[in-house]
Amino acid sequence: MDAKGAQASTPAGAGGSEAEEASAAGRRRLRALLVALLQSRTFVVGAVILAFWILDALFWPLVVPQDPEAMIPEITLRAPSLAHWFGTDDLGRDVFSRTLAGAASTLTVAPAATALGVIGGILIGLFTGYYRGIADDVIMRIVDSLLAFPLIIIAVLVMSILGPSLVNVILVIGIVFAPIVARTVRAAVLVEREREYVAAAKLLGNSNLYIMFAEILPNIGGPIAVEVTIRLGYAIFTSATLSFLALGIQQPSPDWGLTISIGRAFLQIAPWEVLFPAAALATLIVGVNLVADGLRQVLEE
Amino acid sequence: MTGADSSLADRRALQVEGLSVSYLRRGKASRVLSDVSFDVLPGEAYGLVGESGCGKTTVAMAVMRYLAPNARVDAGRILFQGSDLLSAAEGQLRELRGNRMAMVYQDPGSALNPSLTVGRQIAEVYRFHRAMAWKEARDAAAAMLDTVQIPDARRVMGRYPHELSGGQQQRIMFAMALATDPDLLVLDEPTTGLDTTVEAEVLDLVSRLRTKFNASILFISHNLGIVARMCERVGVLYAGRLIEEGPSRDLFAGPRHPYTLGLLRCVPRAGMRKDVHRLDPIAGSLPPLGLEIAGCVYAARCPIVRPRCTEEAPPSLPSGERRTSRCFYHGEVPDIPAGAEAAATSSRRGGDAALLEIDHLRKAYGARGNQVTAVADVSIELKAGEVLGLVGESGSGKSTLAKCIVGLVEVTGGTIRFDGDRLLRATDWRNTALRRKLQMVFQNPDTALNPSHSVRRILRRAARLLARDASSGEIERRVASLAASVRLRPQHLDLKPSALSGGLKQRVAIARAFAGAPALVLCDEPTSALDVSVQAAILNLLADLQAKDRVAYLFISHDLGVVRYLSDRIAVMYLGQVVDIGDAEAVFNPPHHPYTEALLSAMPSIDAVERPARIRLTGSIPNPANPPAGCRFHTRCPRLLGEICRTKEPPWQQDGDGHLYRCHIPPGDLRPVQAGTRAGRDDGGPAAVSPQAQ
Fold first, then answer.
1. Fewest CB atoms within 10 Å of the CB: A248, B29, B105, B198?
2. Shortest Cα distance, chain B CAs vs residue A177, angstroms
3. Who's near A2: CB < 8 A, 6+ residues apart?
C-alpha cells in the first residue's frame, strides 16, 4: 500500500509545477496573440483607421461644424475654403460635415448585414458539413449556382423587388453573404468532424446539436473571425454600391454612396462633392481589409 | 591538439565536438543541444536515441547544415572527413551533400516530389551530381532500384510517389540517397510510421546496403530495439545532452546512466506480463525547453540523486571500455533497485459469461460494385474482465472492427451481442445504459480531447451524460474521483488540453472512458503516440483500472510487446479476417500462423539475443477491395504450401485449449516446417515446404 502511494505521488508531484506552468502558458498564449496582433503593422494601421471611422460614426454630431443637412442656397458648389474645408455641394451643404456624418449609415448597414450573413452562414455550414448526405449536396449546389452570379446583380434584383430601405439593404446583403460564409464554415467543419473528440462525444451520447454548437463551433473560431472581417469589407462596398444605384438609403441622408451618386452630375465643376466621400469610403474599406489581412496572418502563425 | 590526434581525426568519418545549438523564438534563445560530442568511424553505424524533444533531429539537421533559420550554433565543430561543416561555404556544402553525405527523412511521402515520377527523381540525382545524360541516368536509376530491392524496377520508375506504398517510397528515398555513393548516411527515424513488417524489411535493406556501400551511418531513432539491432555504438540523448555512450550491446545490457536504465525498464520485454511484472515508468517529466540547469539535467528525476548533482554538471566520465556516462555515480547504476512493486492484484481471468460475442461480422465501405471490405467475417468472443489484444498491420481492419462495436459505423452483416443484447444500429440509437458500459480510448490524445474545453468540462460532461439523475454535487465528486483514479492533479482540471503533455492528455481520455461504469473499454492504439516512458505509466494505469474495476479491454496495437504484456488472449487480424486467436502465450509462444510468426520476427527487440530465425514478408498488404482468392495471406506467405493455398480457403486448425488458427498447415506439421526454415535459411524469402504438410 505504501509503495502504491509513493507510485501515485511521484509523477503527480512533478506534475504540480507543470500544471501551474501550463496554466500560465494558457494565459501567456492569449497575451501572445494580442502582442502578435499589435506587432503586426498591417493590423495596427487597419485598426487605427477602422477605430477612427467607428468613433466618427458614433460621435459625429459633436464634431461637425455645420448641420450636414442644412442647405444654404447662396453658397452652392463652392470650392474648399477655410469656412468650408471640403467645399459645399449643389444644395449649399457643407461637404466636410456630410462626409463625417456619412460614416454612420455605412457602419450601421455593413456590420448588421455581416452579422446576419455570418450567423446564417454558420448555421448552413454547420448543418451541411456535419450531416453531409443529400441535403448537403443539394444545398451546396444551390450555393454554387448563387455564387456563379456577381453578388451585386443578385442584390440589385432583390432590392428592386423589395423596394429601397435600410432594413432591406441589411437583409439583402446578409442573405447574399450567408452562402459564401457557409462554404468557409463547412470546409472547417469537414476537417473537425473527423477528429476523434467528435467520435468521443458521440459515444457519450451527446446530441447532434450539442456536438455542432458546443464541440465543433468553438474550434472553428479562427476561420470565422477572418471571414467576418473580409465580409465586413465587402458589405461596406456593397451597401455603398446599392446607395449609389439609388436602391438603398434615400435622400437627404449624407450616406457616401448616395452622395457620390448625386455629386456625379457636378463632377466637372465641383469634383470635391464626390472626391471626399469617395476617399472616406476607400479608407474605410482599406482599413477593414488591413485588419482582415493582419488577423489572418497572425492566426496562420 | 597533437599530431597523433589529427591522424585519428582523419580516420573518423564524422566528428561532432562540443556542439551547442539554440533556437531563437521571439527574441529569446532556448538551448536545445548542449556540448554534444561524438564521432562516427568509417563504415560504422552510430545510433542516437532519445525521447521526443531530446534534440536528436537537431543533431541530424546540424550535421547536414539544414538547421532552421531561427537556429543558432552557439559553440562546437562538426568535422566531416576533416573539414569543418559549420564554416563551409554554400557551394562546398552542396558539393558535400550531393556526393559525400546524404540523408533519409522520417516521412518519405512528403520528401518526394508528388508531381514527378520516381524514376525521374532518381535520375535527376545522377544528372545533377554525376553529369550523366538522360538515358544513362535512367539506366543508373533502374540499377539503383534493383539495389534497393524494388521488384520490376523499370515499371516502378514510371510511377508517381502516391502510387507506391510507404515502404516502397522509403526505398526510393534510399535509392536517391545512395545514388551518389555517399560516405555518410544520416537516417532520421527512417522507419517511423511504417508497419513493423515493412520496417523489418527496410532495416534488412539498410544492413545489406551497409556491407555493399561501406558508408558510415548516423542512425537517429526513438526506438531502442531498432538501434540495438542496427548500430555498433549508441549515444543516448536527454534534454539536449549526450548522457551516455558506448557499444550498443554493452550499453543496453548494462546501462551506466540512471536515465538509460529508466528507459530500458519502461519497455515491456518478452516474458513480462501485467499480472506478474509492473512496468517502471520514469518519475517526473522532461525539463522545459530552454531551462538553464546548473547541475545534472536528470537530477530532478534521478533515483540516486545527491546534493552534488544539482550543483555541478557532470562531465563525460569514462564508465567502462569505450564507454562514457555523464553521471558522477555511474558505478551505482547497476544496483538501482527496480521501483516496480508486483502487480496491484493478480489478474482475474474472465468469468464464464461472454460479455461480447461477435458473430460473422462484416463491414464494407463504398457503393455496390466498388466495395471495400474492411472487416470480412470476424467472429470473436470476449469474456467479462478479460483483455483481448488485437494485432495486425495497418489495413487489417482492426480499427474498423472497434468502430463497429462502439457503433461509430454501421455494420454490413453479422451480429454483435454485448452483455446478452444484440447491438446493431449506430451509436445515435443506443441508450445510456449501454453507453455507460461500453466506451473507447482513442489513438491520438491530441485530437481525442476537444481543444477548446477544459479538462473539468470534458470530464463533467461525460459524468453528466453517463450518470443517470445525478445531482450536480454528485457529478463534481465523480469528476474529482475520476481525475484521482487516473492520477491527475486537481490543478490539471482547469487547463485546456493544449497545456497538457501527451501522457496527461491520454489520462484525461481514459478518465472520460471510465466516467460511466464500463464493462468493456476499446483501446485503439492508446500508447502509440506516446514516448516509452510515458507509455509505461499509461499501461500501468490501464492494468490497475482493469484489476480494480474488472473491466474488459479490446486492446488494439501494432506493438506486439505491449499487446503481449497486457493481454490475456490475442487475436491476429489480416485483411479483415482473424487468422489466429487464443491465449496470449499460446499464440505467440511459439507462433503458429505464418503471419503471426512473421509479425513476431519483425519485432525489434532490445534484448541482444541471437534471433532463432528471421522470416520476412515481402510486399505490402493487398488491396482489400480485391482480396486474394483462397487463403488471403498466400501472396505474402513464407510457408506457402502450393496450389491449395491459392484456391482453397484454409480451415480453422486447433492446437491446445481454445487456440485456433486459419491455415492449411496442421499443428502437427508446423513444428518441422518452422524448424526446417530455421536450419535451412535465415534471411527470409519464401521457404520451400514439402507438400506432405497438407
1. B29
2. 27
3. none
| A289 Cβ contact partners less than 8 Å away, ≥ 6 residues apart | A46, A229, A230, A233
Phi then psi dihedrals of residue B682, to 5 deg: -135, 10
d(CA A241, CA B637): 72
Which H helix or E strand runs over B10? helix B3-11
B89 phi and psi, to 5 degrees?
-75, 160
pLDDT of B201 above 70 = yes
Look at A19 and B285 and tell me if their CB atoms are within 8 Å: no
Calculate the alpha carbon distances from B255 to B222, B239, B604 in Å.
17, 18, 19
- pLDDT, averaged across chain B: 85
Sort out which chain B residues have CB atoms less than 8 A from A218's CB and list them.
Answer: 450, 452-453
CA distance A161 to chain B (A): 44
Tell me whether residues A199 and B442 touch, CB distance under 8 A: yes
Tell whether A19 is within 8 A of chain B (Cβ): yes
Does A150 contact B at CB distance below 8 Å? no
Q: For residues A74 and A107, is the Cβ–Cβ distance under 8 A?
A: no
| For residue B590, cis peptide bond before it (omega within 30 degrees of 0) | yes
Please give the grid coordinates belonging to residue A161.
423587388
Q: What angle, rounded to 10 degrees, do the helices at A95-131 and A256-263 form?
A: 130
ipTM above 0.90, yes or no: no
Q: pLDDT by residue (tens digit) across B243-254?
A: 999 999 899 999
- Is the CB of residue A296 less than 8 Å from the CB of residue A222? no
Cell of A14: 512533478
CA angle B367, B373, B379 (to 5 degrees): 135
Q: Using CB atoms within 10 A of its CB, is residue A253 exposed (0-12), middle (13-18) or buried (19+)?
A: buried
Q: Which of B339, B489, B509 sits opposite A16 (nearest CB)?
A: B489
On the CB side of A7, CA atoms within 13 Å amount to 23
Contact between B495 and A206 using a beta-carbon 8 Å cutoff: no
Q: What's the Cα-to-Cα distance from B318 to each of B52, B233, B309, rounded to whole Å? A: 27, 15, 17
The answer for A280, left when phi > 0, alpha when psi is -120 to 50, beta otherwise, is alpha
What letters, b where the CB count within 10 A reaches 16 and e where it falls short, cover B329-342? bbeebeebeebbee
Q: Which residues of chain A have pLDDT under 70?
A: 1-29
The pairing of strands B520-524 and B438-441 is parallel
Place of cell 557532470: B314
Would you state the pLDDT for residue B432?
84
Helix (H, G, I), strand (E, B) or coil at B578: strand
Torsion of CA B177, B180, B186, B191, to 10 degrees: 20
CB atoms near residue B382 (< 10 Å): 23
DSSP annotation of B531 reads -
Residues of chain A positioned with their CB less than 8 A from the CB of B435: 203-205
- Identify the pLDDT of residue B688: 35
Is residue A19 a contact partner of residue A266, using CB atoms and an 8 Å limit?
A: no
Q: Compute the distance between CA of residue B482 and CA of residue B179 in angstroms, rounded to an integer.
A: 56
Residues B340, B359 contacting (CB under 8 angstroms) = no
Backbone angles phi, psi at B574, to 5 degrees: -140, 125
Check: CB of residue B593 under 8 Å from CB of residue B427.
no
A39 and chain B: CB distance < 8 Å anywhere?
A: no
Q: What is residue A286's DSSP assignment?
A: H
Give the residue ranges of DSSP H helices in B65-133.
Answer: 90-99, 108-111, 118-130
Residue B291 neighbours by CB under 8 Å, 6+ apart:
none
For residue A194, CA distances in Å to A184, B280, B399 come to: 17, 35, 14
What does the pLDDT look like over A92-106, one tens digit per residue?
899 999 999 999 999
How far is Cα B627 from Cα A226, in angstroms, rounded to an integer?
47
C-alpha cell at B555: 486492446
First to last CA, chain A: 49
| Cα gap B386→B441, rounded to integer Å | 16
